[in-house]
């Protein structure tokens, strides 16, 4: 016995508890399943309607999918209607069941009943998959020329989906679109305009052909604007506002970058753009669209000013919707008219304090958009004023914008420091990590600033209120680095600071349970640096560090142990914690270029890395002096891979990645040592591993001095005896922390992107790394391994050597020739057992459309045994185009590389 | 383009949902609905009708106990969508004569038909109320005759 939908709903509504509802639904589902099994054709439509209702309640309904197919195959319209409805509600466009409906839809498209054709078209237009749309494109094209307007308009929209998903079919529809635009039926014209907009997105070159339509469109718009009362299309006194909006949107595209056609539009745009409006939503809606059009096309200045004034009227009004759209439009047109925008600055700034979060967000974006060197002080202050009152999420946005402003538009150094300290003290917990990099960047320039910054931070640090973690970390770093300057200059200025006060403060912070481990790393480093900068406190500092040698956190423990040990060799200590070299902007540029040339995995992954992760690494200070720039790079590279992944991929992958990292620890250690060797003697081929802790017998081709090299090895020696290289470093890696060295830190900072270079010595070392790590060979073969559906994947191979075993560095380049960007790109590679793959993250997850840009992803194939083999691999590529996920697997053989 | 159209009641229960090329699975849709509804329902009357959510912009309007939510991408005219929602409501109203939540629940197929007449594949197609309702009237007459 089957219940009516009406009764089911009543029953559900009568039930008061969720468990009651669940019971009713599961009972009903059993009934429906039984009916399906018995092939109960009579009640099938009713059952599907019930399933749609059940679907809304959030229960699984997938067992009804096939029944929908049976319904649409039925001859009666009533059944078909419910069937198609079920298809679009119960299925997503990815379901395989959907593909089975292709033939039924094909038959329905050829039906004589216009309602059946319309049903099939709607369904195809709403959920049609790529395959279906490709198969049925000829039918859709035919229907565009149908006698019935009702069919034509639906076919136009189905055509939009067709070309969006299957761009190569665009040629079919280019011919028909003009006739749609001259149709008498408004619905068909609306469909035609939208189809044309979509065609222009896919075939931007055809724009000159379609520009000829401008006069006709203008006439149409004029007749709509001037039309009196037209009952059929009347919306509160406006004739078909939707059609007007669509015409304006099409004009915007056609008039862009074309003086000639923009000129033709001036009259009508002036008429529409200056109409009174501001009362009814319908009028505002057209006004808004016309303002966007005026700002986009090549319109004369006076018209632009009028448009911006209209927007400022929107802004100062009471209606929040108008404020929102005005801010949104100003944001889009911000570059071209920043002069006229300036006059409206006050209104915009006022919106920062609006009660509505949507408006505040828009206002924040816009304030940042109009920021420049002249107004940055004022505007940043406005932002900072908003910070304490803003809600949690919004604070992150504000601090991010303030930080970028500090970096980008700073008028003078002192202001930079003042603002940085201010944002750190009031919003430290909401700030992104690279604020530390900005601070080091600023203070790196001269002693005056170093003193100014350290004094300011020290004074603020004394105040308990400001002690958020990020602030303490920055302050600790600056005070540690410039402690001596702070003391010396304060004496000169007669405001002498007692050094023991600084040490005491450090002790208070490091022993406080309120501070997290990362902060403690920083304080440990501050202490050890201070020991080299201030005379006479070594014993006190040793006493403070001592308890941490048994700390529960292994990283703190390790640092404490190693620092404690370093006190034994004064010279080494001083050398290890020498001040970071001054950063040179020009040098940095050069280095970045070099890096780009070399394109090794390390460098690539680092270039692509989020600055935030990097700073953590650069500033996670490391006791061990040995590796210098190079080592930090290698390790940095690996860490970057894992940390970057953490952000982008699911936790499972993350785990895998970590696991992968741990597994490779030993190997990495080996790599480091090789690199040290390479760095010291760029071309040296002898095995250095065996005598890494021995004397230095390699000719030094870098500008590093021999003395330093001996020291490097000394430290390594210390480490070796202390807790064994492998394990010591292993932990550092596994936790993704503590890989930069005391000096490496400085250099990492130099470029601000963790390339671990930037200054004198660093430069040489960085280069050493670039070549040392990877012994580049001359032949670099490449191959196109995939070229389908607009996606092209090219691989560039490079033979390199890891620990003397040849390896392949493969740079994969993805390009997209379709007009739609491909998103959520995941590229995976599997290799035979005797090989091993190390992947760096892709430069982006989105491949831009029309071959505009490319995405690169580098991976390294390493042999586990040293035998000669041909490289072969299995690749899997996953991406989304228009939201449709696509997954392809492919075996790659016959690669031009033997190693 | 329009990404989805949702009608929910003030308790957040979905009464109608139509998705256009969002690439979401059924489960993701349910999660999205819950999240967006929760956010929209908590907003005050005076605040603007737009809500940014992930890469979507949600435009919503309240009619008595029903919320109409439309998710769009960057290109869409927000005020135009508000007008479209209003047009949809008026059309539903004309067909059902003082539409209420129950009308939509009991005649969900008709409600979908009206929506399909007005929008397809995320694009607005017909805004003339008479034209939208005409096919429904024909169907109603035919099914009456059959009975």
UniProtKB/TrEMBL annotation, chain A:
Gene3D superfamilies: 2.60.40.1230, Leucine-rich Repeat Variant (1.25.10.10). Residues 594-637 are annotated as: Disordered. The keyword Membrane applies. It comes from the Eukaryota. Residues 778-896 form the GAE domain. SMART domains: Alpha_adaptinC2. SUPFAM superfamilies: ARM repeat, Clathrin adaptor appendage domain. Keywords: Cytoplasmic vesicle, Golgi apparatus, Membrane, Protein transport, Transport. Residues 597-631 have a biased composition (Polar residues). PROSITE patterns: GAE. The keyword GTP-binding does not apply. It is found in: Cytoplasmic vesicle membrane; Golgi apparatus. Belongs to the adaptor complexes large subunit family. This is AP-1 complex subunit gamma. It comes from Anaeramoeba flamelloides. The lineage of its organism: Eukaryota, Metamonada, Anaeramoebidae, Anaeramoeba.
Automatic annotation (TrEMBL), chain B:
Pfam families: Clat_adaptor_s. InterPro entries: AP_complex_ssu, AP_mu_sigma_su, Longin-like_dom_sf. Residues 1-141 form the AP complex mu/sigma subunit domain. It is found in: Endomembrane system. Belongs to the adaptor complexes small subunit family. PANTHER family: ADAPTOR COMPLEXES SMALL SUBUNIT FAMILY. This is AP complex subunit sigma. It comes from Anaeramoeba flamelloides.
